[in-house]
Amino acid sequence: MLELRGVGYRYAGFSKPVLHDIDLVLGDGEIVGLVGPNEAGKSTLCLVASGLAPGSIRGTLTGSLSIDGEPMAGKALHEFSTRVGIGFQNPATQLSGVTGSVFEEVALGPMNLGLSTRDTVERTKAALAALGIDHLAEREPRRLSGGQGQLVVIASLLAMRPGHLVLDEPTAQLDPEGTRLVGEALRALATSGTALLVAEHKTDLLDGLCQRVVVIGDGRIVADGPAAATLEDPALVDRGVDPPSRVRLATALAARGLDATEALA
Amino acid sequence: MTDLRLEATGFVYPDGTRALSAIDLAIAPGEAVAIVGQNGSGKSTMVRLLNGLLRPTEGRVTHDGEDIAALRVAALAARVGIVFQNPDRQIFAGKVRDEVAFGPRILGRSATETAAAVDAALEAVGLADVRDTNPYDLGYSRRKLLALASVLAMGTPVVILDEPTTGQDARGIRRVQQVVADLTATGRTVVAISHDMRFVAESFGRVVVMGAGRVLLDGPPSDVFGATNWPTLASTYLEPPFAARVGDRLRLGSTPTESSVADSLAALRAHG
Question: Tell me, what's the ipTM?
Answer without folding.
Answer: 0.82
